[in-house]
Amino acid sequence: MFRIQNQSDGKEQEFQNLAALLYALEGEEKRCLQLNMRASFYLFHLDKNEEVLESMELTIPSQEDKEVQELIGEFGRKGDAKKPFWKRSKSKQQPQAINSSNSNDSQSKTSFSTLLKGLIWWFPVLLSLASIYLSLETLQLVKTQSQVTPKVETVVTNQKADVFCRYFISSYFSQSPNLGDYLSEKLSIDDLKTDKVTPVSVLLESQEIKGDTTLVTYVVNIKEAQDHVSSKRLTLAVRADKKAQYGYLVIKKLRLTAYP
């Protein structure tokens, strides 16, 4: 039996007899002539146990224009000839390299398959954990909102007092003549003297009820001379009074400070 191995790509072919080998090599020679190229091969003569009897290296087409049969000479006709030890070792190294490459490819495929199976198994687990995390976050958000809501209600509990104070603030900063209608008997207009300015915005900061007295604090943006705008914190103490023109009266002096 004969075997040839292409030196360029490692491809191997086997033939049962010398005639089949010669026919294949002549076909390769014609192909190389058509493509204007050369090809090199290892030739192996094997016994029934596939032990190498002899080997040689062949390059076709020959530079001396020799026929393939002439190039191989007596190769394959010496059934009892044994090839030298160094050639035998060289011939065996090529299949080992190929087998090593095939083994590495097989290991790579096995590793990829294992990784893919692991990802498929872990994906539902990770999805479940993400769902649980989102549920806990939503529950915590609902609890937080429920705790904040009562604070908002305490700020707007006494809406009537808030409306009264806003009317008063407008009259106070404009120093309106009817400012006395907002004051209790303990206060006079002289207690509320201030420079005339224009309120730009009035924001409720806090509201606290102590008995029949409501303490209301606002942040007021006022426009002063030359269109300069500044922020003030204004705290009022008011009390409901049925006899009052607006239903409430300011019962203490104002507390006006810079903000913040």
From TrEMBL:
Bias kind Low complexity: ranges: 99-108
Location of region: Disordered: 79-108
CDD domains documented for this protein: TraM-like
Protein name: Conjugal transfer protein
The organism of origin for this protein: Streptococcus agalactiae
